[in-house]
Amino acid sequence: xxxxxxxxIYTLLLMMLCGCSLFKDVKxxxxxxxxxxxxxxxxxxxxDDANDSSAVKVHIVVVHKEETLKTLMxxxxxxxxxxxxxxxxxxxxxxxxxxxxxxxxxxQTYTIPINLVNPTHGxxxxxxxxxxxxxKHRKMIGxxxxxxxxxxxxxxxxxxxxx
Length: 163
What we know:
2 domains; four-stranded mixed β-sheet; 4 helices; 8 strands
């Protein structure tokens, strides 16, 4: 109990010191999985040198079931891309999760709609990208409806475009 309280206090202090932009990473750290996903539009902006000037595969994953959320939570992008085909084969009706796939070419900017097959909002979500560089290359989705995914040389950033 004391250990959990210390973790929460340290997390809150970190948020106060660094600002709210770290909230999604802090939620990953403490293990929260209660964010409803309302995402309906994503804009991709890729720098000219994104992924060392090579195309980047990006998956936006909206999760509908808690056990799937727990399966995806610890994965980095490399592990995710090794498992995703089998996961999709085991969920053909998209009851557990939905994946929106894009191959982004450096220098591109474009927008895609996110039209969920499963009519319920997701209970969590992730963005995975297959950069050639080492790294986690994964972010959690919050409750934003419109998002910008900015692909840079060796990482990507996300930003809410909600008004």
